[in-house]
Write a structure and sequence with these properties.
The complex is a heterodimer of chains A (467) and B (420). In chain A, 45% of the residues lie in helices and 15% in strands. With 467 residues, chain A is of the alpha/beta class. Chain A folds into three domains: 43 residues, no CATH class; 122 residues, Aspartate Aminotransferase, domain 1 (Alpha-Beta Complex); 250 residues, Aspartate Aminotransferase, domain 2. Chain A starts with a strand and ends with a helix. In chain A, 46% of the residues are buried. Chain B is of the alpha/beta class. Chain B folds into two domains: 117 residues, Aspartate Aminotransferase, domain 1, CATH 3.90.1150; 246 residues, Type I PLP-dependent aspartate aminotransferase-like (Major domain) (Aspartate Aminotransferase, domain 2, 3-Layer(aba) Sandwich). Chain B is built from 16 helices and 13 strands. In chain B, strand 7, helix 8 and strand 8 form a beta-alpha-beta unit. In chain B, helix 2 packs across helix 12 and helix 7 packs parallel to helix 8. The longest helix of chain B has 31 residues. The chains are: A alpha/beta (467), B alpha/beta (420). Chain A: InterPro entries: Aminotransferase_I/II_large, Asp_trans, NHTrfase_class1_PyrdxlP-BS, PyrdxlP-dep_Trfase, PyrdxlP-dep_Trfase_major, PyrdxlP-dep_Trfase_small. Chain A: It catalyses: L-aspartate + 2-oxoglutarate = oxaloacetate + L-glutamate. Chain A: Pfam families: Aminotran_1_2. Chain A: Homodimer.
Chain lengths: 467, 420
């Protein structure tokens, strides 16, 4: 029997809007959309038309805590929020490979003499070397794609910039609906909302301290399965070191997941922000890219979008260096069309990307000596993160730490609830994200005992409360 | 089903300016002249890194706390504060009255894009008025976020001067509360600026119609060599609009600091004075939070290197002085080239009047050459400029100015001055 009424829920985070409507059943998805748009427009209108009426956007969750940390007078204060790598002395040190590249840049004035605009899609040498690094070295099967000119490229403002260009492009031409994991990096939904997406779906990722692949695939199937006739949907996949949980699928699980993603014709958007920080091996960490580009298994008819960043693995955070590459299975012509549209987007947003960071990254990637050093730097960084994890495991009796292969990358998802996180901050001046994410790189010899003791205390507190 | 969806993405024509660059690179003729893109060149035709910038780079690299950590979402405070001081002036009442919000942007384009994205939230149905002609990218920036654009008359080709009457009547006939994009100085592409009296008429008309102003300030100090002089229009605008409407200013440090590719710039909102029922601090906080959200969703946080250099130049008195003289070096060389080009054309008896080249200011001259003349300049003489006839005077130097004058002379004679 057909239901005569249905419930429509409209959630619009930018406006802090959640609207629930009981409506007579609308005959087609298209009509539903028209209906929803008209409601949304009415509500948005309330805010429009005056600078006085602008609502205050909530502060960014991560960077807001850093502001608070800065003014905390406690000498033992510890910032475990931001994903910046710090060494065992709590310092942000430029990698030796990057420092060498900087020195070369400073000494050889001719390399730095022309501060002219980069081309819209970025420095050509950077493009060549990044593509080589990604599609030949990290993923040998990609070489053929480069030879056939099937990969579009733009230098971007790191990973966020790549995601922003991706979402502007997709929402203009292909899709305004995306799947992101629950939980995910806090900024993912913000990026998609603000760059033209109209629907954000969350797939189950993590449940009761574990990765939940069954739940994940079930979610996809339920809402993207057979019978769906409207525009295709996109899906954001964290290539490795899932942020914030640090829990990644195994290679076998990835095959299962990607088979389903492929079957449902979802458009993969690979967010590769931590290449190298998982295993310490830059190339090995591109596992998901290699799987996706296995042409015997998959063909991505609406393209594959790779959003890649050198923020973490080169420590170039604030210089904003990264890239978007789009793999099309079709022809050089399609690739060129995409190139031209990506350029148009960039031209309208900021004309051309910043030069300095890409000059450094390019030097590192183009010199075999510096590149070897870099590979070593990344290995050392990942090694330190591993050792911090083992020290935590030794001091805390946490199930999540027992298996060293469980947590990947820079973060530990403690599972502590909001009130524990508040106690840590208020009583101990230890800053974690509200969702319990702890940045391992903030721990070192001088503070690890203090932090472990506090973590033990709050988790006891939690147990007592729950008991 | 959706297999061929991507196949229908339309191939766009290459960006006119960046395309010149690639044609030029492929041109194998021994003498070629780039009068296309707006970047300063010294008298040997080379990019010039300002001595003040070199010194700032040294200071930054030698500093013990130099690192690559993230800036905050709003950017580097030392940059945004220094930048608003330079732009609004030490005596700015808006700064004294605490009516300014400033955030770092990706140079001028990034600031304009932020203006467009932000204004779309408060007045997406407003019409954006751009000068005719204007910088090629203005229209795209606003249309990309869904605005409709219109133009106001600016350049009168017959007299090669400002069409003030047309300008003012466009302001008066525009729907009340429209948004006007004004070039703060060194109008791109014409190089023609209103004089002080003309600015007064323009801004008075804007106040009368309750319009909103976006100043695009890309050439402060580069045009005349004097920061205050080049900020005349912005400061007059702030004074006239201080009780009327918010003013947005998009500030680029690409040209006046000579760091085109580092994308250093700022976006400023100057709030009007309002009666006491309005809590301006609260409004400022709300606007700041919205700007942060835009930045966060497009780039997370702005690039550090260029910002640190400009901040160092603006906040180190010795470097600030050096920078002032660097701007004089650039602007006086350009002014000299304007005179030499005009003088050569006069000497060659080139048909037409060329005094406008000297009267214009900033990087560009709207030569008045037709599209077919420009085409012939490129084909026969390897002199490159955009088809509108806009020439970047910075591309001229003592060894090519005569060559360029002769080339212009040849094409003008070829087509006849009636085509001018």
């Amino acid at each position: 029997m057909q239901r005569r009424f249905e419930k429509i829920v409209i959630i619009h985070p930018p406006m802090n809007l959640k609207l629930v409507y009981q409506t007579p059943r609308l005959r087609s998805p298209n009509r539903t959309l028209v209906f929803m748009t008209s409601i949304l427009r009415r509500h948005l209108h309330k805010f429009a038309g005056s600078i006085i009426g602008i609502p205050r956007a909530p502060p960014d969750r991560i960077l807001g805590l850093t502001e608070q940390y800065k003014t905390d007078p406690n000498p033992q204060k510890t910032n475990l929020t931001v994903g910046i790598y710090k060494d065992n002395f709590g310092e942000v040190k430029t990698f030796p490979s990057v420092a060498k590249a900087q020195a070369i840049l400073d000494e050889h004035i001719e390399l730095n003499i022309d501060l002219s605009y980069l081309p819209i899609n970025g420095c050509p040498a950077f493009q060549e070397n990044v593509l080589k690094f990604l599609y030949r070295e990290s993923c040998p099967a990609g070489g053929e794609l480069l030879d056939k000119e099937l990969v579009s490229f733009v230098q971007t403002l790191s990973g966020t910039g790549a995601l922003a260009v991706t979402s502007k492009f997709l929402s203009s031409f292909i899709s305004r609906s995306v799947w992101i994991p629950n939980p995910s990096w806090a900024n993912h939904s913000n990026v998609f909302w603000n760059n033209g997406f109209k629907e954000i779906n969350c797939y189950t990722y993590y449940r009761d301290g574990e990765l939940d692949v069954d739940g994940w695939l079930l979610d996809l199937e339920r809402k993207s399965g057979a019978g769906r006739t409207d525009a295709p949907q996109c899906i954001v996949l964290h290539a490795c070191c899932h942020n914030p949980t640090g829990v990644d699928p195994t290679p076998e699980q990835w095959v299962r997941i990607m088979d389903k993603v492929h079957e449902l014709q979802l458009i993969p958007i690979i967010d590769m922000a931590y290449q190298g920080l998982d295993t310490g091996d830059l190339f090995q960490d591109a596992h998901l890219l290699r799987l996706c580009l296995d042409s015997n298994r998959y063909r991505w008819n609406n393209g594959l979008f790779l959003c890649q960043s050198f923020a973490k693995n080169m420590g170039l955070y604030g210089e904003r260096v990264g890239s978007l590459s789009v793999v099309t299975p079709h022809s050089v012509d399609v690739k060129r069309n995409i190139d031209s549209q990506l350029k148009k987007i960039v031209r309208g947003m900021y004309s051309s990307p910043p030069g300095y960071g890409s000059r450094i990254a390019n030097l590192v990637l183009s010199s075999s000596h510096l590149k070897e050093l870099w590979v070593e730097d990344v290995k050392n960084m990942a090694g330190r993160l591993q050792s911090v994890k083992s020290r935590l495991a030794a001091q805390l009796e946490w199930a999540s730490l027992r298996d060293p292969s469980r947590q990947h990358g820079m973060f530990l998802y403690t599972g502590l609830n909001r009130s524990c996180v508040d106690i840590l901050r208020e009583k101990y001046s230890i800053y974690l994200l509200q969702d319990g994410r702890l940045s391992l790189s903030g721990l070192n010899d001088s503070n690890i005992d203090y932090v472990c003791e506090a973590l033990r205390n709050v988790s006891h507190h939690l147990n007592e409360k729950e008991a | 089903m959706s297999k061929d969806l991507l196949n229908n993405v339309e191939l766009l024509p290459p960006d006119a300016l960046f395309n010149i660059k690639s044609r030029l690179a492929k041109d194998s003729r021994p003498v070629k002249v780039d009068l296309g893109i707006g970047a300063y060149r010294d008298d040997t035709g080379k990019p010039w890194v300002l001595p003040s910038v070199r010194k700032a780079e040294k200071l930054i690299q030698q500093s013990t706390d130099y690192n690559h950590e993230y800036l905050s979402i709003g950017g580097l405070g030392a940059l945004t504060q220094g930048a608003s001081r330079v732009l609004l002036g030490d005596q700015s009442t808006a700064l004294k009255e605490n009516r300014v919000v400033s955030v770092q942007s990706l140079s001028g384009t990034g600031a304009l894009h932020m203006a467009a994205t932000f204004l779309a939230k408060v007045g997406h149905d407003k019409l954006i008025y751009l000068s005719d002609p204007t910088w090629a990218n203005h229209k795209a920036i606003f249309e990309m976020v869904g605005f409709k654009t219109a133009t106001y008359p600016y350049w009168d080709p017959a007299t090669k001067s400002l069409d003030l009457q047309g300008y003012v009547s466009a302001i008066k006939s525009a729907p009340q509360g429209s948004i006007f994009v004004l070039h703060a100085c060194a109008h791109n592409p014409t190089g023609l600026d209103p004089d002080h009296d003309q600015w007064t008429s323009i801004l008075d008309a804007i106040v009368e119609k309750d319009h909103i102003v976006i100043f695009d300030s890309a050439y402060q100090g580069f045009a005349s060599g004097d920061l205050d002089r080049d900020a005349f229009a912005v400061r007059l605008g702030l004074e006239k609009l201080s009780d009327a409407s918010p003013v947005i200013i998009c500030q680029s440090f690409a040209k006046n600091v000579g760091m085109y590719g580092e994308r250093a710039g700022c976006f400023h909102v100057v709030f009007p004075r309002q009666d006491q029922s309005v809590d301006t601090e609260k409004v400022k906080a709300a606007v700041t939070s919205q700007l942060a959200k835009i930045t966060r969703s497009e780039l997370s946080n702005p690039p550090a290197y260029g910002a640190k250099i400009v901040a160092t130049v603006l906040n180190t008195p010795e470097l600030t002085n050096q920078w002032h003289s660097d701007m004089v070096t650039m602007s006086s060389r350009i002014i000299k080239m304007r005179h030499e080009l005009r003088d050569h054309l006069v000497k060659l008896n080139t048909p037409g009047n060329w005094d406008h080249i000297v009267g214009q200011t900033g990087m560009f001259s709207y030569t008045g050459l037709s599209a077919e003349m420009v085409q012939r300049l490129e084909k026969e003489h390897a002199v490159y400029m955009v088809s509108s006839g806009r020439a970047s005077i910075a591309g001229l130097n003592s060894s090519n100015v005569e060559y360029v004058a002769k080339a212009i002379n040849e094409v003008v004679n070829h087509f006849g001055s009636s085509k001018l």
